[in-house]
Amino acid sequence: MPLYQAVVLAIIQGLTEFLPVSSTAHLALFPWLLHWKDPGLTFDVALHAGTLVAVVVYFWRVWLEMFAAAAAGWRSSLRSGGAQRDSPCREDDERRQKSRMLWYLIVGTVPAGVAGLLFEHSAENQLRRPDVIGFALISVGLLMWAADRIKTHPRELAQVSLLDPLAVGAAQALAVIPGVSRSGITMTAGLFRGMSRESSARFSFLLSTPIIAGAALKKGLDVLKEGLPPEMRLPFFVGAVVAAAVGYLVIAVLIRFLGRHTFKIFVVYRIVLGVIVFAVGWGLRHHLG
């Protein structure tokens, strides 16, 4: 695999994994348009590893605080025999909120994990078609527009309740369909649940972390069985580093952007890209026919 292709695909992955525009659609479309060979499973692992590093590094403090709060809660329960203080202090409230958020993320991960195990292979082989990808791009774009327009978004991340991870997690399961976009559908679900734009993005990224980690681990084990070809070692390393750097920047910029702007630019982009994908698919059928 030429090194320049690794860099280009890693940039695309870093951009589109976290922007609500579908990484699957872009990673399928760009190599086809440029007449590049399929980079294969090995490079896919590098891209997933890179985006995993990006989201973990950006939110490492949040994850550390959630795990520490959960551990402190368990120790406190063991010491007190399950009894609660009559007048909990502010620090106790913050600890419980962070501990609850960890459990909410675990609950929200389950639907996507189950969908990935059951349907990912068939979706990649049977649904990776221009008509499906185009329809998914446009339909989720319209849902995003509706959520951004008709709902009020006053709720911050600290106000998340159990129904939120259930709803957003169920939406994340739909990301197994090519073109849906994990970040796009989860941010949209967060908006429909009344989260602020910035909070919906943060919750989406936190919820994506276990899924990206699971995908990287699963595919990484497959690669380990076959071994990493010598000619892929440099593209693998470069791809992972570039995807991590671009992904980190995208997360930081997008969260700041959504603090002041709407999702309009992503809605327009998804619809335009969906129309292009439909046109490409129609042209292929017409040419082959």
Number of helices: 11
How many structurally independent domains?
1
Decide which structural class fits the backbone. mainly alpha
Low-confidence parts, pLDDT < 50 over ≥5 residues? none
Strand/helix succession: HHHHHHHHHHH
- The average pLDDT score comes to 86
The proportion of residues in beta strands is under 5%
Alpha-carbon distance between the two ends: 32 Å
Q: Biggest β-sheet, characterized?
A: none
- Principal-axes geometry comes out as globular
Helix share of residues?
A: over 70%
Rg, alpha carbons: 20 Å
Keywords:
289 residues
What does this structure look like?
The chain is mainly alpha-helical. It has one domain (3-78, 88-288). It contains eleven helices and no strands. The chain is globular and about 65 Å long.
What's the SSE blueprint?
Layout: H1 3-16, H2 23-34, H3 40-58, H4 60-80, H5 90-126, H6 130-150, H7 163-173, H8 182-192, H9 197-226, H10 233-258, H11 264-288
Short description:
This protein has about 290 residues and is mainly alpha-helical. It contains eleven helices and no strands. It has one domain.
